[in-house]
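Sat 14:20. Reprocessing the chain from the morning session after the first attempt stalled halfway. Input below, unchanged.
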Amino acid sequence: VQLVESGGGSVQPGGSLRLSCAASGLVFSLYYMSWHRQVPGKESEFVAGMSGGGGLTEYADSVKGRFTILRDNDRNTVYLQMNSLKPEDTAVYSCRANGAQTYWGQGTQVTVSL
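Finished this time. Tokens:
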């Protein structure tokens, strides 16, 4: 099983980024997919999650109204559209597949600064 994130980078406050997580080696539609973020010295934080069929979406209060999680089960990919980014959104963002087993991607850095 592989989860490969992409789309991270540096952006100014108020900007947008779209992260992607491409999955392989698992039946993607059976997995709850989520995004998490972590900064050095702090615990990993749940950001957003979506059920296999897309009927359930969940967001951390800190990103509600700014971030949107999307998934394309035909492409085995989950996305995180991040708008109105703030400096406090700076972190390494990782995707997680939660089902019969749990898998993590390697993470992608997002930096929000002037």
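The longest strand covers residues 17-24.
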